[in-house]
Design brief:
By secondary structure, this protein is α/β, with parallel strands linked by helices. It has eleven helices and ten strands.
């Protein structure tokens, strides 16, 4: 008899729960629909960045998000720099590598080869750089696609969230193996750091797809090392990569000053203009402004400007105004599938 009463009580409780749940759905649904209509989800930069301090003086025209710049390099010597005299007694851990076989039994030429395989492996020298919050994020990954894919379509970037302030963040929900860090060797000891740090700048191809990343190079790199960068590839996607992420030409024009004044050792510069598809209409005046600024970069011996969609460029170059000695760059035109078509 008691078991039967318990069963009846459970049925009553379950029935009440169903009624309450059904009533809650009916009441809440209109409010939820109104909320999402007024506040649609943002597919570009939907993460909450309200904790960032605004820096109005650093906001280029057209940027709707404002966040802090990266912290400038400190004036004092950092932990991996050679310690000043007298500090070995204060920090007994700062000892020469007298027991390491890497330094005692291998010649400098062999060590250099090891450093190159770790920091700039042959056939995969491209180092993708992007600004995150107050730092520069760098990854190296292999592209399994045999086509010559540029930065915006590279396999490194699908799991990245792009923000309207020009920064990116890795999507934590995406699976897959994260690329291994390349700075472990540099952080292993002082001697390895001093012998190998130069290879990071001279042997790699720095690939950048956002103006903010290039503009912040002088803040996160020592100027003497920034001047040793040999190869730089810039990928400018002229059409917006999301309807809510507006592309601005002003940011790139400002970033090109870094190439002119800080990267005097540059030997190879490739600038790729791209769109989502061939039907995208690009403002010619915007391209003319960019080409004019690129024409001021005259110290790079191997300088190529690429158009990654079908278009005629003779009219653009005439609007820019041909210098007496010609443009400092070569112009290549490709179709949307990266097949070469013309060269000027």
């Amino acid at each position: 008899m008691a078991a039967k009463k318990d069963t009846t009580a459970e049925k009553v409780v379950n029935h009440v729960k169903e009624v309450v749940l059904f009533a809650g759905i009916i009441i809440c649904c209109p409010f939820l629909c109104c909320y999402f209509c007024v506040n649609p989800p943002r597919f570009c930069g939907y993460k909450n960045r309200s904790h960032y301090e605004t820096v109005p003086s650093l906001v280029p025209p057209g940027w709707s998000w404002r966040s802090e710049p990266p912290e400038p390099l400190p004036r004092y010597r950092r932990s991996l720099s050679a310690p000043p005299r007298g500090l070995r007694a204060v920090y007994p851990g700062l000892k020469p590598q007298k027991k390491s076989r890497l330094f005692t039994q291998l010649t400098p030429e062999i060590r250099l080869r090891i450093y190159e395989e770790v920091l700039a492996p042959e056939g995969n020298e491209v180092l993708h750089l992007a600004s995150t919050h107050r730092r520069v994020f760098g990854i190296r990954c292999s592209n399994t696609d045999k086509r010559n894919i540029r930065g915006w379509q590279h396999a490194c970037w699908p799991n990245m969230i792009a923000y309207q302030d020009g920064t990116v963040q890795r999507e934590p929900k995406q699976g897959g193996r994260l690329p291994g860090t390349i700075t472990g060797l540099l952080r292993s000891c002082r001697q390895a750091y001093s012998e190998a740090i130069g290879l990071l700048y001279t042997k790699n191809i720095l690939q950048v797809r956002q103006a903010r990343t290039l503009r912040e190079f002088p803040l996160v790199m020592r100027h003497d090392r920034l001047a040793t960068v040999r190869k730089l590839h810039l990928d400018m996607r002229l059409s917006s990569y999301s309807d809510q992420c507006q592309w601005t030409v002003g940011g790139w024009n400002d970033a090109l000053h870094v190439v002119r004044y800080y990267m005097q050792g540059l030997q190879q510069l490739r600038v790729s203009f791209g769109v989502k598809h061939n039907e995208v209409v690009v403002d010619d005046q915007m391209l003319v402004e960019l080409l004019q600024n690129l024409s001021y970069v005259e110290h790079v011996p191997d300088f190529v400007v690429e158009f990654r969609w079908r278009r005629k460029v003779d009219g653009l170059l005439n609007q820019v105004g041909r210098p007496p000695d010609g443009f400092p760059f070569r112009v290549d035109v490709y179709d949307i599938l990266d097949q070469p078509r013309h060269s000027w």
